[in-house]
Amino acid sequence: MENSAKNKKSNIVLALDFPYGNRNELLIKAIKILDETHEFLCAVKINRQLALPLGLFNGLKKILRLAKDYGLPAIMDCKINDVGHTNETIAKYYFEVGFDAVTANPFVGWKEGLKPVFEIAHKNSKGVILLVYMSHKGANEGYGQMVKAPEAEGLVSQYQIFARKAVEWNADGAVVGATYSKKIAEIKKIVKDKVPIYSPGIGIQGGKIEEAVKAGANFLIVGRTITLAKNPAKTAKEVRDTVNSILGDTL
Amino acid sequence: MENSAKNKKSNIVLALDFPYGNRNELLIKAIKILDETHEFLCAVKINRQLALPLGLFNGLKKILRLAKDYGLPAIMDCKINDVGHTNETIAKYYFEVGFDAVTANPFVGWKEGLKPVFEIAHKNSKGVILLVYMSHKGANEGYGQMVKAPEAEGLVSQYQIFARKAVEWNADGAVVGATYSKKIAEIKKIVKDKVPIYSPGIGIQGGKIEEAVKAGANFLIVGRTITLAKNPAKTAKEVRDTVNSILGDTL
């Protein structure tokens, strides 16, 4: 991912999200957006808005091939949170079809939980990106709750526990909503440069690019702001340029 | 679901789970198991072990049609845990293809989280089944952690919070691992008869049928114990009979 960002001079991950709709049109739309915007991106993220209607080994395969042709790594945002043997099987199918990384929810735990996912991923030079704080309003209920500190006195926030797990489990990324830039800064202090921060939620969900990047986001995940734009290429270029101008020489 | 259990005189939900394998063989295997065991079941549960390789609107559609022919409601065990607009789209596709219920993780919260899923489900007479305590070893990390009680002093366990949410949100089921029968009893005290308990993990994962049912499980979710059995029909009948003999007249 870091190499792709350097080569492409972009820290923008395009989330290829579309509203519920006509399944035949979705593939055409997705390919069109990718064709128009690929030069402004460092990666592409797919969620089930696209995976379910297209089918993993059907339409989605074509999109993954196109992403590869454009030199873009592909992240499956499947938010894995099942028992180990199921998680492992899910990850295997996603990797088999061509994804370079999967997202997972650390809430599920390690033993018979995410351990098999990390093992199968790292054995195959694939990545696991953990959810640390999500971008929606209800995120405070779970990610924001105060939890009895493991092996210590007192309380600690759930997202701090998750950030520590991201370091401990050798995660390849941590997702922190751009809508909560203060949390990005807090989490950055824990993960430092060991785990890059991926930040979704700018634009339609209300997150501000500058705040998120200055707080420590390494990659911006941008979805409907680009996919629903009148001119997706222009919007993608603008977002990319905004991020680059904030990062300046550190890019 | 209650009607189906009465009609079929069975409280067994078959989890059509198979190990990672040849995609062409999976559809044949799944149909064969369903043909052989349907008379001993009250419902069928599909997870991504089958949904990913077969494709939602491809192979999986055939299995859902077969389940319908056998009068079995179908649950998609997708463990929804994303932001609201994604969750809603996921649920819509699963309902469109013919599922009667989806599973969801209450950790994601209500606002811009699971609210849209409950709305779209109940508007269409579909169900939402919440994860309250899972069956794997790592479940204690998240589901078992102690959390600062919302709007009160002191600590409360995560699964108690989830059980209360299941009642409050009007959930159509609560998943509690059969591997933790004491937790089933604790959760039953909270959900009472308002939310039926679905219990996975008997057999291969170590849960005991009798303990789970006596603790308050309403439905047993049985997967690999049946799907990997030498004689799936015989095993399904045995499990069904065991449960029925424990339930006796209360069936």
Q: Any overview of this molecule?
A:
Two copies of one chain form a homodimer. By secondary structure, chain A is an alpha/beta fold. The first copy, chain A, has one domain: Aldolase class I (TIM Barrel), CATH 3.20.20.70. The first copy, chain A, is built from eleven helices and ten strands. The first copy, chain A, has an eight-stranded parallel β-barrel with strand order 1-2-3-4-5-8-9-10, surrounded by seven helices. A two-stranded antiparallel ribbon of chain A has the order 6-7. In chain A, strand 2, helix 3 and strand 3 (74-80) form a beta-alpha-beta unit. In chain A, helix 2 (23-37) crosses helix 3. The model of chain A has no long low-confidence stretch (mean pLDDT 94).
Give the SSE map:
The structure is a homodimer of 251-residue chains.
Chain A: H1 2-8, E1 12-15, H2 23-37, E2 43-46, H3 48-69, E3 74-80, H4 84-97, E4 101-104, H5 110-123, E5 127-133, H6 139-142, E6 146-148, E7 155-157, H7 158-168, E8 173-176, H8 181-191, E9 197-200, H9 209-215, E10 219-222, H10 224-227, H11 232-247
Parallel strand pairs in A: 1-2, 1-10, 2-3, 3-4, 4-5, 5-8, 8-9, 9-10
Antiparallel strand pairs in A: 6-7
Helix pairs in contact in A: 2-3, 4-5, 7-8, 8-9, 9-11
